[in-house]
Amino acid sequence: MSYKIAVLSPVAWRTPPRHYGPWEQVASNIAEGLVEKGWDVTLFATQDSFTKGRLEAVIPAGYEEDNEADAKVAECLHISYLMEQADTFDLIHNHFDFLPLTYTGFIKTPVITTIHGFSSFRIIPVYKKYNTGNNYYVSISNADRHPELTYTATVYNGIDSHDFSFNETPENYLLYFGRIHPDKGTFEAIQIAKKAGWQLLISGIIQDERYFDEKVAPWINQDDILYMGVAGPHQRNQLLGHAAALLHPIRFHEPFGLSVAEAQFCGTPVIAFNKGSMPELIVPAKTGFLVSNIEEAALAVADLPRIHRRHCREWAVKNFSKEKMVDDYIAVYKTILENP
Amino acid sequence: MSYKIAVLSPVAWRTPPRHYGPWEQVASNIAEGLVEKGWDVTLFATQDSFTKGRLEAVIPAGYEEDNEADAKVAECLHISYLMEQADTFDLIHNHFDFLPLTYTGFIKTPVITTIHGFSSFRIIPVYKKYNTGNNYYVSISNADRHPELTYTATVYNGIDSHDFSFNETPENYLLYFGRIHPDKGTFEAIQIAKKAGWQLLISGIIQDERYFDEKVAPWINQDDILYMGVAGPHQRNQLLGHAAALLHPIRFHEPFGLSVAEAQFCGTPVIAFNKGSMPELIVPAKTGFLVSNIEEAALAVADLPRIHRRHCREWAVKNFSKEKMVDDYIAVYKTILENP
């Protein structure tokens, strides 16, 4: 291909991130996946980022990792640096939320924006204003589409299959994996495990201290309810792969449940509350169960033997791999580049 | 004149502000002053703003006054709205700090930016990057100029002389007028008054609660040290006009001391610590005194009879009136418009 693609990553964290940084991670996965397929890719990210493509950077380090940094300054210098050379690219792929859109009225290069979720209804007016001309929006699940916006495609986040190995024979525990926060249903997961009479392992950062202290910590006994702290990449693969099931009793419309896809990559089925993107991520009775409440979830635990773990793996590889994501984005690029 | 001028106000507050909003106030003073002189002015501000020129607005109300608002969304929609129609103006006068600069690489219209002070050294890189091309910087005092930037002019903030009436015969009190904050030297003002044996009236918002509790409140007895709360426009004129002197013992390099100019408008001399813009605002021994410490300030109080209050008024009207500011900006505009 001779097309020149600019991938605009956020500058909150390095690309790829050292630990946390989900948008930077997706931007990196796309940039590297395109390079592997021979595309001419320029990654706009922090100066300490790395890519097998070309790196363009004016901000030394992620503003979340740099005491000297001012987020607003970093953002506008980073974005304007790309926009001021927009005409040297055939396509810009924006992973930086809404601010770059407000520079697109001045450039002719088409801009694809992956909307990685809406932080607030207050940002909708920007997306509405720029839902036109050379702007194209991609949703990360059908569930996350805003009814007042027009989208070009849904492309699911893609996972590097090297990070999650298939495990045929699980151990006898259920897993909660994610931020400790009321939205994520840590308390509900504990109740499901108690009701089903299973051991529960809990892994994740404590995002809501008060919730942890009041609703989670009182149940932790390191016997049937265990808190494992935060897992690095290796432990994450172990925890997810050896679980009999991942419990995902969310209380919000999650745009895309990354751990739900990751668990299935390991062959681990998922019991999830039927909200947000869950129906797109789980095939009921084949790769997990979609339930409405704690009682139904506890009953689903008894049904786990009906699930073939290989089906979970196959479904995840087919739909949520990095390769699938890159192929889907290439299809979007071609639609725009070849049908201007 | 047939030139079309766009004045870009911030959208933190209404233009002009109801109470607080210093940058919005200056933007308003300039816009209205230009209209009075027959210029074609479009004010870009919140929708609840008003002007005798044309109002262009996409943000309903200042984000500091509107619970529904998101500051970042309001800022980028407001700025891009002007920039996307930049070519319909002969000149843009920016009062909105650094963010608009990052859109100027796409437009041909000259942009004058009044730098109303640097909130942090972290914003300097943006000013450095855009100190070129069709961008022109104006400082609000010579003292506030950053050594690495090039400026077109210094224009002092202009005060509406209707708001401050001359008073020949003051009462026997000293005045502290401003935010209660260590930078502003509230504690030092108290010590000066004590040492000089004068009554001190203190007026201003309590910006630093702990500083107020620990360093200011213990001295307040409503006898010789009085706290008057926050003054509205009428009381402000009364307090400033009837003071024997304004004490301004600042501990930082204040870019422009608005109350220092306002006091002199009323005929009230100012005793200030010799920092920042103070040497540009005060004529020593003629409109006040520049001192180095509490002792010198207390001695200066004894010298107050040497000051003719009419000289203070004359100096302020000549240098810090709205009319003077507008004339100075018109001179800057003409330099740019007529020598492209």
Description:
- The structure is a homodimer of 340-residue chains.
- Chain A has two domains: 4-158 and 322-338, Glycogen Phosphorylase B (Rossmann fold, 3-Layer(aba) Sandwich); 161-319, Glycogen Phosphorylase B (Rossmann fold).
- Chain A has eleven helices and 13 strands.
- The first copy, chain A, has helices at 22-36, 71-83, 124-129, 186-196, 209-216, 233-242, 258-265, 278-281, 294-302, 309-320, 322-338, and strands at 4-8, 40-44, 54-56, 91-94, 111-115, 135-139, 153-154, 173-177, 199-203, 225-227, 245-248, 270-273, 288-291.
- In chain A, strands 3-2-1-4-5-6-7 form a seven-stranded parallel beta sheet.
- In chain A, helix 1 crosses helix 11 (322-338) and helix 7 (258-265) packs across helix 10 (309-320).
- In chain A, 47% of the residues are buried.
- Chain A binds chain B through residues 68-70, 72-73, 76-77, 79-80, 83-84, 98-99, 102-103, 105-107, 120, 122-123, 125-126, 129, and chain B through 68-70, 72-73, 76-77, 79-80, 83-84, 98-99, 102-103, 105-107, 120, 122-123, 125-126, 129.
- Chains A, B: Pfam families: Glycos_transf_1.
- Chains A, B: GO terms for molecular function: glycosyltransferase activity.
